[in-house]
Amino acid sequence: MPLSTIPASGTAPAIAILNAHIDRLSERFVARRALLELIMLGLISREHVLLIGPPGTGKSAAVQAVAGAIDATTFEYLLGRFTEPSELFGALDLNALKEGRVEPVTSGMLPQADVAFLDEIFLGSTAILNSLLKILNERTYRRGQYSMVTPLISCVAASNALPDDPLLAAFADRFLITMFVDPVGENELPELLRTGWRLSAGDPDPIPPVDKSVIADLHRAALQVDMGPIGETYAHIVRKLRLVGVTMSDRKIVKAQKLIAAAALLRGETVAGPQDLWPITYLVQDKAQQAEASELLHAELKDSFNPVLTDSVAKATYGPTAHAAYLTEQATHLLETRPALTTDRLYEIWLVRLETMLIRIDAAFDSETLPQQLRVLRASLQAVLETPQHNGPADNPIPGSTVAEPA
Predict the structure, then answer these.
(1) Cβ neighbours, 10 Å, residue 193
(2) pLDDT digit string (tens) for 362-388?
(3) How do beta strands 154-159 and 115-119 pair?
(4) Which residues have CB under 8 Å from 12's CB, separation 6+?
(5) Model pTM score
(6) Cα(136)–Cα(142) distance, integer angstroms
(7) What angle do CA 204, 207, 209 make, to 5 degrees?
(8) Per-domain boundaries in the chain
(9) Is 147 in contact with 111 (CB distance < 8 Å)?
(10) Pick from 255, 258, 176: which is nearest to 220 by CA?
(11) For the region Disordered, what residue ranges are annotated (predicted)?
């Protein structure tokens, strides 16, 4: 049975229900709580979410789980180069066609969905994307003279990468929230394996769905949040980002106020404050610029806090300096825990961890942005991997060795 709607006493019970659902969902998705939180934020704001990341990172499963946790009609489709519009929007009604009317059969299709998930979104044809634009922007589906209002709450789209085509980039701008999804980190791998194995036989404890009216009531409450106190600060942040070359459309910065208002509501407040400005980071649709934004806005976002959206707050305010410090700590510890003998079985495992750390550093920084301390540690990692191994005691690498710089 779906959980009941918000009682007249206020939104606190609904927020507690939502938080409990995110907690339970995050137990099934290792290191993916921020992803779950942002999808939920998109639902409350009635805005769309774009997930960018390689295949196999749990994007589809996370969206399915969030959609399944709400008593709502869902639609899911993997787009390809040859996907026909009828596969998403419905084939023509032959009976209506005999009567001279052009009407699609939309039952069970995207125009009838409350929540939609479209994988490989940028592979859609021009005809598909044009129809989607109308649905995303106006919640209306049109085909010729036929027109209908859609019940869509939020569309979550996924892709391996952002498109280079300017026309597709303009389409991507319709997604207010953008999250870059990376594979689970090395430290979370044991938990990922345990959780995956535990759930491989099925979910022994299914989550009862929340009635979609709870989401609707939270959305209406968010629209009543007082945004006055943060207006000037928000405008200052937008100016600051634009000055360093971050592209932000007027449409996006206006709509982003809904995210800030929803964050304030989930914090239990009816007035937005500096604690609620962190969603601005997710407006940026470039991975490097998004990381730079969290660093650039350190002073403005230092008070960020949300008891429900904990991980998405942390990710939004976790800039390159913090990431470099974390990688430095991890790399230093890895070098210090080198097995004494190259013949030790653990030595081979240690070398694999070294390679993984090198990949993580190169994924986070290029040769121009790599901090000096991390550059030295990276050189030490590479020196070990390039040195022929011998059956004897292993000398610890000396940070500062003269070896090749990162590519």
Answers:
(1) 12
(2) 877 888 888 899 999 999 999 998 887
(3) parallel
(4) 268
(5) 0.82
(6) 12
(7) 150
(8) 79-113+121-152, 229-320, 321-386
(9) no
(10) 258
(11) 387-407
